[in-house]
Each structure stands twice: as structure tokens, then as C-alpha cells.
Amino acid sequence: MRIGSRYKIAAAGAVLSLVLAACGSGSSSPDDSGVSATQPSPTPTPALSATEPTGTPNGSLRDPASTPGGTTTEPTPNDGGTSGPTPTPTLRELGIVRFSTAGWSTDFYKHSVSYDEIVQAQRKDGIRSIDEPKFEDFDGAARWIRDREPVLAVEINGDARAYPLGILLWHEIVNDTIGGVPVAVTFCPLCNTALVFGRELDGRVLEFGVSGNLRNSDLIMFDRQTESWWQQVTGEAIVGELLGSQLRFLASSLVSFEDFRNGFPDGQVLSRDTGSLFGAQNYGLNPYQDYDNKRNTPFLFFGERDARLPLMERVVGLNVGGSAKAYPFDGLQEQRVIHDEVGGRQVVVFWKAGTTSALDDAIIAFSNDIGATGVFDPVVDGQRLTFEADGDGFIDEETGSVWNIFGKAESGPLQGERLEPIIHTNHFWFAWVAFSPDTLIYGME
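Above: the chain sequence. Below: its structure as C-alpha cells.
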């Protein structure tokens, strides 16, 4: 089924039709908790074309001398030959034709990307972030999540937490604090990008929401302090007061609920008690049924299409030392362990079966097994280890120690040791190459 067709999911014998928009769907209304629910809508929301508004963006100019590119110019002479203020450009002159500026206090004169690359598919906060997350133990989570369902695992300072994609599909951002570190846990279904960032910037803790806008089909976040816009894939501010600022990537892994439970026995799981109007009955359901079919094309993607791989092929993406490289899942499933060098650094990539896709079947637990990945520095205490697959784990040739998908030695002489994780992402190919156009592909150099 192609995006733009209907998406149907079964829940308690009912069919729920959802709009696929802004990495989410539909319109929303607030409940008492301040969390909004996505309401059903029968057809996809088209990209909006702007009607020329009166006045200026946000009702005021922060920099009257700014040009559409964000640079400043001297005042231009008027017809009388005397200097006067630079005329205020219209939104169309700024290139803002696919999204609305209504309701934003963003400084739209500051931007590092062309506005014609941004498209609105949902209203601001139409998909509501989770800002006061609650957690439960494994016994509680096991009542609604199956062993093979995917979770985004994060551990900081000994505090391990799992964020089920069955919840992230509906909220896309969780503002949380893990091990004393303020974090933003994010997931864009359209690009299959699950990323975690530190929320502290220059001594200030930011809180993030879903803007409703996309660039290269990827979620554009906004911070509620300045309403600057941030590209989820890159973690960079692309519009507004904080233009050019960079969020810090934090290590995370997309794994199964079972793997997380086994790897972190003291861990916690994000609860379905989010305060959402549509409630727990939709968590675990997939409104993007069959989206990750390799015959599909990405939704609201207008960038160049690199044909080296199918656009919807899953890849592990690495950006190390200024060098980008992609590892197709097809090859990982065959080899299970890949040793390589990226940006002058040795890396090892693990793949393990047993994790379902969040973007396949209408019920995530019944989806295809696409597996889980981990990427690590293979050096421990100055010794470079060589790994091979061993059952559900991995064994190093040098000591015979057995390691799990999180890079932790579970038995053998190195039991208890941890490999240093290397930041990686599990993108769809089109999204990875859109933001890393000079990427190499493992096996195709």
C-alpha cells in the first residue's frame, strides 16, 4: 500500500482510519492534562500553500535590515534619493509558501535552509509530546507489550529506560530526565529515525514539541523557550533565535522489549498512562501499515532520490570523524557482525534477530522481524577484539567472552566489561542519504 492510500488498523474489532501527517495524523484537542489526542480523519492532509497574509511574520520585525537569507544589508535609498528603511519582505518573498506562520513567535528571518524545502502537514502541537512521562516495571509493561516489540533503550548514569515505539508513534517526542540528564527522546515514523538528545544548551534546559512541519519527510521539532525549529535527523536549529545551535546526541538502541528486560533487569518502561485522550487502546497499533515495504515511496519527500539502494531500505547510519557510512540491513542480517573502519576509527556492527518493525503490520506485535543493531568501538583496555555471531549473542575470538546486543560481556574472562557505544541510527535509506549525501555504502565502496 502506498502512502496517500488509506491506513486502517484494527482495535477491539473496530477500524480506526488515520491521517498520515507530520510524522503523525489528524487534528487534536487538549484534555485536562494538557496532552492532545489525535482524532481520526478520512484522507491525508495536503501540503498547505500560503495565502499572502497582511503584516509581517509574528506581527513584528526583529531585524528590519534582514534579507530573506538571514544576512543584513544597509538601508536602500528610496525614490527621493534619501536613505530609508528596507521594505518589509512578504512571506512569499521569504519563500514561505508551504506552511503557515500563524501562532508562532519564531524569528523567521534567521534560517539556514531554504523555506521551499519545508512543508506543513499538521498544526503546531497537533501531535502532542509527552512532557511528564510515567514509568512502570517489567511486570506492568508485560501486560500490554509483547517480547518482540521494539523499544528505544537509553541508559545514562546507571538509569536504564525503554520507550516503546508503540507509544512514540503517537507522540514522537518525550521530554524526560535520565540519570540526572535532561533528554529529548524522539521518533519520526516517516524516516524511521529514533534519536535521543541532551536538552541542555548553554546552561538552559529546553523543552521540545512537534512543529507539524517536515523537511525531507523528517520531523521538525521546536523548543518552547524560543520557538526555534530543529531538524530531528541532525539535531541542529535551522530556523529562529537559536539558529546553528547543535544538540548533543546520546547513545541509544532500538531493540526488543525482551532484549531490554534481559540486558537491564533494573530498568523501567514508559507507561501508557500519558494523559492522552485517545488513551492506551491505540498504543501498540501502527497507523502507518505497510509503510516500510521496499516497494513504497516516502511520504512528502521532495529531495533527490539516490538509487544505490531502495528508498525504503533500512540502514545503520554512522557519521564518524566527518565520514558517513551506511550499512544495509539486508547485509547485516546475512553477516550479523561487520568489522570496519569509518573516519579513521575501528567499529564493529552487531545485528540480532527478534525485534519487530513498528511500521509493518497494523498490530506491531505481529509485524515482520527486522532485528536490532548495536555499534561499538571493539577495543577494551587497549586490546582490539574480533567478534563473530554466537547463538543470540556475540563471542570475541581473543578471550571467548560472550557479549549481548548492548555491547556488554555476559560471560567469560571479560564478564562485566562494556564496549564503548558509537552513536548510530536506523534510518530509511532515503532519509539517511538526504542528510548525508556523501555517504559511502558498506559493500559498495
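The longest helix spans residues 165-171.
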